[in-house]
Amino acid sequence: MFIVFIINALNSLMKALCILMLIVGLYQKNTNRICKSKKRLDGKTAIVTGGTTGLGLEIAKDLAHRGAKVIVACPFEDEGNNAREFIARSSGNDNVEFKHLDLSTFASVRQFATAIKKTEDRLDILVNNAGVCSYVGKHITDDGLNLILQVNYFGTVLLTLLLLPLLKKTGNLNEPSRIVNTTSLSHFIGKVDFAGWRKPLNSFVYYPSSKLCIALYTRELAKRIHNFDVLVNVVDPGLSGTPMLRKVYGALLAFVANVCFKNAWEGAQTAIFAAVSDEARVNGKYLCNCKEASPSRVPFSFDDDEKRRLLWEKTMDVVKFADPDVLQLVKVIDK
After folding, report:
1. What pTM value is reported for the model?
2. How many domains does the structure of the chain reveal?
3. pLDDT in tens, 22-69
4. Which of 228, 236, 105, 218 minimizes the C-alpha distance to 167?
5. What would you report as the CA-atom Rg of the chain, rounded to the nearest whole angstrom?
6. C-alpha span between 304 and 285 (Å, rounded)
7. What are the strands of the beta sheet with 177-182, ordered from one edge?
8. Do residue 141 and residue 176 come from a single domain?
């Protein structure tokens, strides 16, 4: 009897969740905005992490269509090469490269950044799109961190800091280089749990937490960059039907999401807007639906300077970043 009750409860919950997804999805479909910028990117260079599938593939394809040299980065060689060929073929732009990058290990991040700085003399756009929302194989990385937090947050932070000098070298006040970080609507249920960064806890806890951390970090980095030759903003793509959903939630919910939610192209529009549009020449902002929005009010507020500084300091301890030249670029200027 108890088992029957549990099964019925789960079925009811599933139906309620599908109905909620339908309502939210239909609202998004009817209110979704598209990046209308026609800006060309000839002669410019862009990196898109996770640029081989889902939203990242759409972002990379758009930037290639605009004439940019596009470097797509992911940890899977076959997927990366297939994406490179697809982007080049669909955009008519052969200046597309795949480079290996595994954000779950700091060694790979450093190797990738070193290779970029050796081969590239400019970097105009860095789109930190890569992310995971479930455990793959192991819960704790070789660096001793929660896998989801390392890929979605710590690895992204380290990569950005390592590439910051090249971004600053490239950008200027008339045409700033741009950093685009990807958060999620789920950040509103996230929390900053310093004690849990090295624990293999539930992925449904750590995905929202990673997305909250990246939003707060974006705001803090923007305040630490002392002029506007580099712009850094965080984007919320909204609820989008991507391949990640099938892996995490199964075929049924993935099907509902693909029908009701934004498709990958629609979900990519705000990141593209942040990367290219003149309307997005802002710094440290939360962008959603191709416009500035307000992040959720959470215990670690977007505008709480002291809490953001604490997050920054503890993050620097974890990534063990010690380049004095870069740290000077992001040094807090006391008023």
Report:
1. 0.86
2. 2
3. 666 555 555 678 999 999 999 999 999 999 999 999 999 999 999 999
4. 228
5. 20
6. 14
7. 96-100, 69-74, 45-49, 125-128, 177-182, 230-236, 286-288, 292-293
8. yes
Q: Are residues 120 and 3 part of one domain?
A: no
Question: Residue 38 domain-assigned?
Answer: no
- 86-126 residue pLDDT tens: 999 999 999 999 999 999 999 999 999 999 999 999 999 99
Q: Which two tokens stand for residue 296?
A: 């959720």
Do the beta carbons of residue 255 and residue 317 sit within 8 Å? no
Domain of 258, CATH number, reads: 3.40.50.720
Active site residue 207: yes
Of the candidates 206, 207, 217, 286, the residue annotated as catalytic is: 207
Return the SS3 of 274. Answer: helix
Q: Is 295 left (phi over 0), alpha (psi -120 to 50) or beta?
A: beta
Domain span including residue 105 = 43-329
Q: Pick the closest to residue 59 from 35, 32, 30, 92 (CA basis).
A: 35
Give the ranges where the chain is alpha helix by DSSP (H): 2-31, 54-65, 77-91, 106-119, 147-149, 155-170, 203-224, 243-260, 264-267, 269-276, 305-319, 324-329
